[in-house]
Amino acid sequence: MNGAVYLDLDGTLLDPGGVLVPESLMTLAVVRDAGLRPVVLTGRSRWAAAAIARTLAIEDVVCELGAVVLVDGRLQLAAPEAVPFPRAPLLAALEDVPAQEHEPGTPRMSGLVLRSAMPADDLTDELHAAGFGGWCCVDNGPSHLPLDDGRPSRVVHVLPSGTDKATGVRMHLQMRDLLPGACAVVGDSTADIACHAVVPRTFVVRSEDDEALAEAARLGLHVTASRGAAGALEAVRTVVTGGRSVPGPLTPQG
């Protein structure tokens, strides 16, 4: 396989809430039938993402929001010098802001995941002011859970600076010796949309995330009519057949 389709999990390949539905399997079938490689692209931990990938017979995984890439059992880190990461000091630096750890106790390799009522850029400023200049916060869309005080929140990943899903996609392209033009990205968050800088054929699955929809409109990216896995299926069908949103069908290189 000399081309790939990078598929976000929650709200894209899986329906909201991480539910596997028939459209999930149909999406993978369309990708594989076109001779393309499906790749998991997710903020989930290395272990959770790998388990889901195994269930779906997917070999390659870009996880922890791009900080970790798994290919044929090989593991590559975006910032190996930051592993293990300073969990307790990072949390202490953010103890006075409206944010809390998302799913405490879940093992991760490369950083924290928070639910936050404060924008990611402002959280990054807080970290820098506390002396963590080599760390940044990356928004990954609305959380289905509010903060403990009831305020709505967004999922924010705390990662080594310069790390995001685009970083992970770039590492995977190099590991598999793939050309960006032979690949596509399908996702529903601003973190997925950032991959457009690496893989121009980035498709946005419709969701309730106004920030993602606004960014997609700003960049002129195709937004699906359907949501969830049905939206992912719509996107990959456009990828492999061509359509108004792309100049032609995506076919494997070589």
Automatic annotation (TrEMBL):
Record organism: freshwater metagenome
GO molecular function, one term: magnesium ion binding
Gene Ontology cellular component annotations, sorted alphabetically: cytosol
Matching SUPFAM superfamilies: HAD-like (SSF56784)
Full protein name: Unannotated protein
Signal peptide: none
Parts of the chain that traverse the membrane: none
Pfam families per the UniProt record, alphabetical: Hydrolase_3
InterPro entries (alphabetical): HAD-like_sf, HAD_sf
